[in-house]
């Protein structure tokens, strides 16, 4: 077998003294000063340990044949590295070597070292000018230097659908023990520790000890107080030095703690390892009981992505390095780079090299394929050494429909109540219910999205179905279903009907919980049918052309009941496809991805209380990584 350390150095040697100048389109980086990730030729702590272990074995084998050479036994296994003074001193020595290199190379010039990486890779992240980066690249100790790049998040009945109760759970002794003794590390947007999916109280009275091989800790901050961790959530840290150095970190929105201000991290953690039998209650309706796929596993969170800007590779590498030191068994990354890294190969970068070392350390690394499909070579998970998961459909859906007064039924989505059975209600377009049309100016061009209560005549809308436009602004988060529902309630509307703007193309519209009758029509063609019926039913004054009667009526069927079919599994259109691109020029690599697909659309999972109106569950597009 080829020595792993030699192979790793060969990988970096391919880029020896290379200098990555492509900033990946990160407009927030100053043109002359930026964050760089520097990888050195010298082996990391893990690889030094492995070399020592191999030397121990060699000398021991020689001793068996009469050789009396003495040897020093390594003091610990890598899984317990952070507990040992021996390894802490080695970490300190490597960090001091990094500082010495920077001082000698830059000779009194200003710079900011953000991280020292010592366990999986030997290197550091540093904030320097492009000229200083060029100077560092010429040092003989340096194997590779690249500009830090941005990354992003990729986002009940599912265990039965996957056959777990009669399959894997049985082999593990039932859901009560499925995942026991395993720690899953999540590199994501953090976690909301208050969610019942992460309650550490064991009502079964079974012992639930934290695995001895795990040595992680929990940060304590005002928004992640003492007691947030327990026997389920056993570790929590956050990493944001690259973002802070760039001046884009907002502590009030992004939370300088492991707390999840986005929701994605809470969601993925609950899908993989959330408690079994947690009630999925949304908008007052109980959709059943939810369970993580490995409900007995422990969770350790390494927050490196944030709501307002995503994340950066330097912070992610620091998170991976720490997770490996802590002794996680599985590393879950539902994140992908924003674009293909430059260089000789997509996976020859510090992030993928760190994951390679993690695999060598015995950690099972799993990554989302990405949501950049359906084109060939749209894959955003590049490494052949990690397990890549794509998104497939579920055999469960929550269908909704609206029946028009002309008996035409239009399908839609929305986890919403139905209107009163046997009764149809008048429909009123938001654009026809304005208090004063003449006062609408350019900034109010999106008034049809029903985001501003003060724009509408309550007397016109009261007791009727309000028709609102669903535009690209909803996709971008500039307008929200939550706000439109609040406006409709304040106007005493009976329900809400969202039609699709024709410019919204190629986006998955998932069932959205609504606490009043409502529906989203995801098809632009079906939306045209709705609007044609509505407009043809208006009665206008022959002279003024003002509306004198709204003639269109409809009933909403509701979408709170699940329907099941045999159409699954089917690859979701947005799931990234292979083969892997070899480089940024789209040459083919001899790597086929993803390794498998799993249910990844409209999965019930926990959501952060800081990121949604619901304090319980939210069904969104996300990657199922277990």
Automatic annotation (TrEMBL):
Leader sequence residues: 1-20
Any single biological process term in GO: proteolysis
Keywords: Glycoprotein, Hydrolase, Signal
Residue ranges constituting the Peptidase S8/S53 domain according to the UniProt record: 179-614
Stretches assigned to the Inhibitor I9 domain: 36-153
GO MF entry, a single one: serine-type peptidase activity
Chain segments annotated as coiled-coil in the UniProt record: none
Pfam families (alphabetical): Inhibitor_I9, Peptidase_S8
Recorded family membership: Belongs to the peptidase S8 family.
Protein's UniProt name: Peptidase S8 propeptide/proteinase inhibitor I9
UniProt source species: Arabidopsis thaliana x Arabidopsis arenosa
Lineage per the UniProt record: Eukaryota, Viridiplantae, Streptophyta, Embryophyta, Tracheophyta
